[in-house]
Design brief:
3 strands, alpha+beta, 17% strand, three-stranded antiparallel β-sheet
């Protein structure tokens, strides 16, 4: 039995969360969002995006 987990690219994740690609990249760099390297780029799991949606992105979309 194979379990397939859904993961998204940085542009797809940005669209889902309604933020810029730079914001997603910054969140990955600072460790707020976890991403895995997959072939030619980074992928963010659906579970990570759900967590970001649940907290409203408060941890990484505010400045100051």
């Amino acid at each position: 039995m194979t379990i397939k987990t859904t993961s998204y690219t940085i542009p797809e994740s940005a669209w889902i969360l309604g933020v810029s690609r730079a914001t997603i990249s910054r969140a990955i760099r600072t460790g707020v969002l976890r991403a895995t390297r997959c072939r030619s780029g980074l992928r963010i799991s659906a579970a990570e995006l759900v967590k970001a949606l649940q907290d409203g992105g408060a941890a990484w979309t505010t400045t100051g």
